[in-house]
Write the structure tokens for this entry.
Amino acid sequence: MNTMNRPILVVEDIPNIREMLEITLRFKGYEVVSAADGEEALEIIKTSLPSLVITDILMPRMDGFTFIHTLRQDPRTRPLPVIVLSATYTTPEDKHFAMSLGAVRFLEKPIDTEEFLLTVAETLTGETPTMPIPMDDFKFYLEYRSRLENKLGHKNSQITRMERLVQVLPESQKAAFQSLLADAIRDRDEIQQQLDDIYRRSRKND
């Protein structure tokens, strides 16, 4: 598949991070299109295949795990190389799951710009990676649920610690931790919504 003249698709829900990735890539001469979540990305791909997909994992509506799984089910999009970026899903189990779905590289946030650009260039100019056999839906949702439940427990623990800390911090330090707490609550709510969707699907199939 000749992909060198196609744009790179960036999938990221946080506007300032999405803009940073776009600027970084365009500064090096790449054409870039972007989406705020997996569903929007799939709509873009319907009309124009990118050369490379760079995606976050934790996003509303459709997260990165489901997005990659969906790409791999369609013969048209199965060969697309996908680089995963994440600040939330960074355990060895999370990384293994992303790679088993067909991600070719996994980078943790915050992004090291030089490493990011090197990874992009290597992916675009290297040999076309051999994709794993697409994971069946039952296995995907079983492992996906496990990843979400694990991350939800971690986020709830993190939020409890932050809430306790905010109560005893001096006023000069509270604002920074309240901002971190708000981010953690947002992440927790997104994970919970994705878990609720899986539980609803499971009940329908019973």
